[in-house]
UniProtKB/TrEMBL annotation:
It holds the Pfam family Lactamase_B. It comes from Ktedonosporobacter rubrisoli. It comes from the Bacteria. Keywords: Hydrolase, Metal-binding, Zinc. InterPro entries: MBL_superfamily_lactonases, Metallo-B-lactamas, RibonucZ/Hydroxyglut_hydro. GO terms for molecular function: hydrolase activity; metal ion binding. Belongs to the metallo-beta-lactamase superfamily. Residues 57-255 form the Metallo-beta-lactamase domain. SMART domains: Lactamase_B. Gene3D superfamilies: Ribonuclease Z/Hydroxyacylglutathione hydrolase-like. Coiled coil: none annotated. This is MBL fold metallo-hydrolase. SUPFAM superfamilies: Metallo-hydrolase/oxidoreductase.
């Protein structure tokens, strides 16, 4: 039976990329993809649980380069949510970080692909009655457009869902843009659509490459159906264009994708 992805790692030369589960997520399939019908889902029953929910993964990535420990997103946090469109259950990230041999203080950089609640949930925690950074020694990075989108009145609801994280990160956040390097091995790709400032990361080691995709894909079935509209994409048509572009990249030799919500394994290769 399909399940959320478990802890796993791949090696690109001397770079280790680890997926750190934080829990799991269950999507109402026709709420996630509102243009689909029950007939569309008949070939994909193996991707659903016994209650007909689309099983997804929930977590973050740890990039260990020769000089830095980089956390890409930081999961949902120690909480749960149950709504009509999805249910999410977090809380495992720090134990999986420990499994990778690191403590929160060892993280040098936290990079946010985007700032939805299931990607920023471990940004802070309470200590002595006040909210403090979970990764106290890390630079916290995001694209400028992703941060500034919360100034848009249309993003009022989205802002409310991450208000605590925005308030905490406000004095710490730094901005990097398309084409800039976090480290010599890790470059930012602008991949808007899911959110206006959504980003992916291109990791390079010799002839090998990996793309940390963020939320360009929510399910493996989007490889076959990149045209399916995703209810969580802020600009669905732009997101479809980006998804098709990433599929072209993933079809090239020696390249692996990291798709955070894909079930079973978040690491995908099409070549």
């Amino acid at each position: 039976m399909v399940s959320a992805a478990t802890y796993s790692s791949i090696l690109l030369g001397n770079i280790r990329i680890s997926y750190l589960p934080d829990g799991y997520i269950l999507f109402n399939p026709m709420a996630l993809f509102p243009t689909t019908s029950a007939a569309d889902w008949q070939p994909y029953q193996h991707l659903l649980d016994s209650n007909g929910q689309l099983v997804g993964s929930l977590g973050a990535y740890l990039l260990q380069t020769p000089g830095k420990a980089i956390l890409v997103d930081n999961g949902f946090g120690p909480r749960s949510y149950e709504g009509d469109r999805f249910k999410a259950y977090g809380g495992e990230l720090l134990s999986n970080l420990e499994r990778a041999g690191l403590k929160p203080a060892d993280i040098d950089i936290v990079f946010f692909t985007h700032m939805h609640s299931d990607h920023v949930g471990w940004s802070g925690h309470k200590a002595n009655g006040k909210q403090v950074l979970t990764f106290p020694n890390a630079r916290h990075l995001v694209r400028n457009a992703e941060w500034l989108r919360f100034d848009n009145p249309e993003e009022k609801k989205a802002r409310a869902s991450v208000a605590d994280e925005l308030n905490l990160l406000g004095q710490h956040i730094e901005f990097l843009e398309e084409g800039e390097y976090i480290t010599p091995e890790v470059r930012i790709l602008a991949t808007p659509g899911h959110t206006p400032g959504h980003a992916s990361l291109l990791v390079t080691a010799g002839d090998e490459r990996a793309i940390i995709l963020g939320d360009i894909f929510h399910s493996i079935l989007q490889i076959e159906h990149p045209e399916w509209t995703n209810a969580f994409d802020r600009d669905p048509e732009q997101a479809k264009t980006v998804r098709r572009r990433m599929l072209q990249e993933l079809a090239k030799p020696s390249i692996t994708g990291g798709a955070t919500h894909v079930a079973d394994s978040v690491f995908i290769s099409l070549s």
